């Protein structure tokens, strides 16, 4: 008789790569930090926390380099004392000088002060470096390579000092992922430097969960990093605007299991009219009410959860 051939086993597919990466204040599964920048580093208490009865889960603040070890640290300490995750950024001396180590002592002073705080801090070194406020050119002549080199130097100093309280992230513009920007996001990134990808994402009237946002998340997923939003804004004060805010939150809360790229770990609104030539992005009307109600959502993380 003809021997029965041994069936060829079905090959086991390679498992999908898992991004096993932790960092200070990474929220628990299914949760995200929900908060805002309020005016010019304004007090979120009267604006959001007292009306809602809940803390801002994350607070974005902005500082000059000469404040990096003084008021920036003091404000981060105050945020932690009020159950907020501080996400601070500072503008720096020339990027090439930073990358060459000419400001290492100043970097170390900042890092030591932040790392000594009684809780985690998210740190960004020069946000929107591509040219914010409508400027099409990078904020520094060193360009994207210089910005990456500067952040690589900051990471090296974090490693040397053995910091364990600080997560380092850039904040790039979502517009950089739009081909019309003329930019290549790959030039503004290098794997192995950052703990997560920070993004600023605005929309005049269309939903924030749009094709551009999908592109950003897909790109981040390919680089095995979470994404958090340092500034977001959408126009409107009616129920339609409120629904866009809710959809934005829900999509982020579900992002860890939707298979569409990066997990979204934080969303910080730009509740301000500063540096806004097209009009204020302050939260108003039903959009404001929705924002504040979500501060109490059980999916909103708390810096003390971990």
Question: Describe it for me?
Answer:
- The structure is a single chain.
- By secondary structure, the chain is of the alpha/beta class.
- It has one domain: TIM Barrel (Alpha-Beta Barrel), CATH 3.20.20.80.
- Helices cover 30% and strands 17% of the residues.
- Strands 1-9-8-7-6 form a five-stranded parallel beta sheet. Strands 2-3-4-5 form a four-stranded parallel beta sheet.
- The radius of gyration is 21 Å and the shape is globular.
Nutshell version of this structure?
This protein has helices at residues 44-52, 71-81, 95-99, 104-115, 143-161, 211-222, 239-253, 285-294, and strands spanning 33-38, 58-63, 85-90, 121-125, 166-168, 171-173, 197-203, 227-234, 264-271.
Q: What's the structural blueprint in terms of helices and strands?
A:
Layout: E1 33-38, H1 44-52, E2 58-63, H2 71-81, E3 85-90, H3 95-99, H4 104-115, E4 121-125, H5 143-161, E5 166-168, E6 171-173, E7 197-203, H6 211-222, E8 227-234, H7 239-253, E9 264-271, H8 285-294
Parallel strand pairs: 1-9, 2-3, 3-4, 4-5, 6-7, 7-8, 8-9
Search tags:
single chain; 306 residues; alpha/beta; TIM Barrel; 5-stranded parallel β-sheet; 4-stranded parallel β-sheet; 8 helices; 9 strands; 30% helix
Number of helices: 8
Q: Sheet bearing the most strands, described? A: 5 strands, parallel
Instruction: Estimate the strand proportion.
Output: 15-25%
Tell me the distance between the termini: 67 Å
Radius of gyration: 21 Å
Q: What is the topology, as strand order, of the major beta sheet? A: 1-9-8-7-6
Question: Would you identify the CATH architecture?
Answer: Alpha-Beta Barrel
What is the CATH C level class, in words?
Answer: Alpha Beta
Overall mean pLDDT stands at: 93
How many DSSP-defined strands?
A: 9
Query: What share of the residues lie within helices?
Result: 25-40%
Structural class: alpha/beta
Number of domains: 1
